[in-house]
C-alpha cells in the first residue's frame, strides 16, 4: 500500500479558511495513495488556545465538508487529522475524522489524553472515552492523537481491538522532538504494528513544531521520516508484514498481565 503523510505548516498568520483550502488541494494531489493523513488540530493550531472556542465546528462543518470532497476527488482513505469539535450538548473536543474513498465520514475519535496538565487542552477540552479502530481494504487502523503516544495502555487496547496500523496525527513541539520519534518506534515494537505519525510544521501559538513525521514498521525500523518544514511524506509498504512479524517473533503470545493476545486473522 501507499501512504502519504501531509506535514502541514501551521502558522498564526494564515487564516483558517485559506489553510483549509490549501490542505484540501494537497489531499486532492495524492491520487494513487491508499491512505492520506493530516496532522492534529491543523485548522486552528494545536497551541492556538485563544482561537478554539470561537473556531470550534461541528462534525458537518466546513473542515469536514472540505475533507470529504478532497477524499472523494482523490479516491483515498483520508485521516483528516483533528478539529476542535463543538458538541451542542457538551464541551469542545479534539476530534479526529476518518473518511472513506467515497467521501463518507466513517469514524471519529475524540482524543482521550489531553495535554497541558493544569492549562490549555487539559482544561478547556473534554476527554474522549472510546477506543476506535477502523476496518479498511488494507488492514485495521487504530486511532490515537499526539499526547496519546505517551500512554502504552491505549495502544495495547487498540492491539486487542485488532489494530494493525496505528495512525497518530500530532502537533508535537520541537523541544521534545526526540520523544516523538522514540515513542513512535516504541509503540511499533510493542504492538508489532505499523505506526504512521503525522506532525505539524511551522510555529503557532508561539510554539515551534517538530515536524519529522515518521512511518515505522512492526520491527521498529523507520521506513521514512520527514524534515522540519512542510512536506508530503510518501511511503510504500506491505501491511502483511504485521502478521509475518507477529508469527516470526511471537512475543505477544507471552503476555501474562491484562487481556490475552488477539487471535491472528
Automatic annotation (TrEMBL):
UniProt KW Metal-binding keyword: no
Domain of life: Bacteria
Annotated SUPFAM superfamilies: Carbon-nitrogen hydrolase
InterPro entries named in the record: C-N_Hydrolase, C-N_Hydrolase_sf, UPF0012_CS
Alphabetical UniProt keywords: Hydrolase
Domain CN hydrolase as annotated: residue spans: 1-239
Keyword Protein biosynthesis: no
One Pfam family matching this protein: CN_hydrolase
GO MF, one example: hydrolase activity
Protein family per UniProt: Belongs to the carbon-nitrogen hydrolase superfamily. NIT1/NIT2 family.
Descriptive protein name: Carbon-nitrogen family hydrolase
Organism in which the protein naturally occurs: Streptomyces kaniharaensis
Origin organism lineage: Bacteria, Bacillati, Actinomycetota, Actinomycetes, Kitasatosporales
